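re: ur msg from earlier - yeah i can do the glutamine complex, just paste it... oh wait u already did. ok heres what im feeding in:
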Amino acid sequence: MLDYQAILEEIHSSLKKVDNTGEVANYIPELGNVSKDKFGIHLQLITGESHSVGDASEKFSIQSISKVLSLAKAFQLVGNDLWERVDVEPSGNPFNHLSLLELENGIPRNPLINSGAIVIADVLLSHLKNPKEDFLNFVKELTHDDSISYNNKIAESERITGFNNYAAANLLKAYGNLNNEVEDVLDFYFHQCSIMMDCKQLTNAFFVFANKGACLKNVQHLTASQVKRINAIMLTCGFYDEAGEFAFEVGLPGKSGVGGGIVALLPHCFTIATWAPALNPKGNPYLGMQALEQFTTRTKLSIF
Ligand SMILES: NC(=O)CC[C@H](N)C(=O)O
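and the outut:
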């Protein structure tokens, strides 16, 4: 039997000693206020057993991790029609890259880069009655936690400096791949990115992807086939131009965010989340990537 608690503690204390060369994201000014020293890990096993270490119950802005949850909601609402508006290929480019979008006539490479997530936000805006409220309720339902909320200050901070996302949304609009107004779609997108969650809540929210679409309380939210496809997209696109590196080092489907979070999972076995705000040059969490590499190497638990 693996002693998960001891393994997490060893990983945490060994990485605490590492010279953390990462930088906290400050292109969204509000994110720059978070301490670089925060570091938490939470593990949720499919059996119900769970383990925590460090700052695992401190909330942070989930940023791009939210793209998986919005994708899940949109897939649930419109099914395979989704793939007419967004592709499922890795981009091999940074999350905010624009030139491929122009080259490929306004069809984003995948739903986990910014342009793809903006199209998904547009789908949700068209299909939800009260988009922000309904989406937050979906996240609360998956997580079984009513305390989850948007951080309006972070959303506003991103809106003020969100020139790149405005450029992406305007390009999408020009190519006819946005049905709603740019301002409304981005308001939704900035809010979904601002959602505050801790590592434990993230492992709960992502439980559906490890459990064939059923949440912790065994309510079926997605089909097993939808979960297969979302996990495939996480594996191939979840870390942008470092997706290959994450698959190589860690070997799990997962998703990062510029708030410093990562959540990853092994189907039928566990979900795991890390939080360490300093990012590597590709915008992925510096310590979190290493922690997950150590975890899957030590436990020999990966999809491969
Ligand atoms: N990689 C990320 O977490 C990026 C999300 C961020 N809200 C942005 O659009 O720039």
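cool cool. DSSP finds 13 helices and nine strands in the chain. ping me if u need the other ligands too
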